Amino acid sequence: MASKQLWRWHGITGDGNAQDGMLWAESRTLLLMALQQQMVTPLSLKRIAINSAQWRGDKSAEVIHQLATLLKAGLTLSEGLALLAEQHPSKQWQALLQSLAHDLEQGIAFSNALLPWSEVFPPLYQAMIRTGELTGKLDECCFELAHQQKAQRQLTDKVKSALRYPIIILAMAIMVVVAMLHFVLPEFAAIYKTFNTPLPALTQGIMTLADFSGEWGWLLVLFGFLLAIANKLLMRRPTWLIARQKLLLRIPIMGSLMRGQKLTQIFTILALTQSAGITFLQGVESVRETMRCPYWMQLLTQIQHDISNGHPIWLALKNTGEFSPLCLQLVRTGEASGSLDLMLDNLAHHHRDNTMALADNLAALLEPALLIITGGIIGTLVVAMYLPIFHLGDAMSGMG
């Protein structure tokens, strides 16, 4: 998909009419060949820049959900794709849907037509749609897939919001403190010096801190800048990403949120693929393809390896060290009773509910705690600045 280019063309059709359109092609030569097959004589060709934001998961899930609705209403697959192409506001999505509809008209299966578009439709989409084609339940598979993607996106947004909130509040508090230390406090310090009287210990300590940050603050900023560059460079190394993810998972509350999000994603997709009739190993591969974290990809690869070597599923999960005893027990029960899909679905709901509740509780607890902390810091600075004023009367009496 990365090699595909989006082109806008203007030409003359076989019946002599002028026509415009957009088409995906790997090169200008292949574009001309495609237009020739459509009996179009091109007059102008223009390459269009691709907006990668249009390929976000929520866009793909929305298209699949709309397609499932049209299929449920009785439209054929090619008719549904053509209708979606006409109604979609994005030009590149219009061209993509038209391309898929054209492939179907050429006799290509829908799941195979999606293969060149793995950036837009990940392997999970392809596996679910292939299952729908084989079982004759394409609309149901598309509905389930869209629902899973929506639920996963909501959980991800909830976790990100819970983790982002304290960072924003603390950053604002730091900005206020720095502004007071470097802009407000020096003005008060100049006033205090004119009275030539000792400052209270709290005020003296704050002024010492202000002097230190003013003298060495640039060094702290430089150090932080170097750390950011080093982290960005290390982010390209899977070993660093794995070590970083392990460390984050060990942090209280934050680690629980991140682990709950990933386990929800894993069990939701496994339950979805199991209920659709996809083998467990193929389901694990679908999960691995949707992961962006090298650490969890490594764990899923280990699970695949252990199961391929004859280990039961629950033991393969246990060997990773990231699945709770409850997970292992339910999976073991599901294997023994033949109800693995039901147990996986129960685990997905369990982890989703727990993670959502933890995110809500974290936000509820952090809001007053952060207000107290930031209020205490700023209040201390204000008291330190105004405390000498209470002694100015004595200082002025001494001068008189």
Automatic annotation (TrEMBL):
Task: Give residue ranges for domain Type II secretion system protein GspF.
Answer: 64-186, 269-388
Q: What membrane topology does the annotation report for this chain?
A: Multi-pass membrane protein
GO biological process, alphabetically ordered = protein secretion by the type II secretion system
> Can you say where in the cell this protein is located?
Cell inner membrane
What is one cellular component GO term in this UniProt entry? plasma membrane
Does the UniProt entry include the keyword Transport?
A: yes
Q: Which UniProt keywords apply?
A: Cell inner membrane, Cell membrane, Membrane, Transmembrane, Transmembrane helix, Transport
Q: Which Gene3D superfamilies match?
A: Type II secretion system (T2SS), domain F (1.20.81.30)
Q: Name one Pfam family in it.
A: T2SSF
Q: Which residues cross the membrane?
A: 162-185, 216-234, 369-389
State where it is primarily located. membrane
**Record-linked PANTHER family:** GENERAL SECRETION PATHWAY PROTEIN (PTHR30012), PROTEIN TRANSPORT PROTEIN HOFC HOMOLOG (PTHR30012:SF7)
**Family as reported in the entry's similarity comment:** Belongs to the GSP F family.
User: Which NCBIfam families does UniProt cross-reference here?
Assistant: PRK10573.1
This one is known as: Protein transport protein HofC
From which organism does this entry originate? Escherichia coli
What is the primary gene name for this protein? hofC
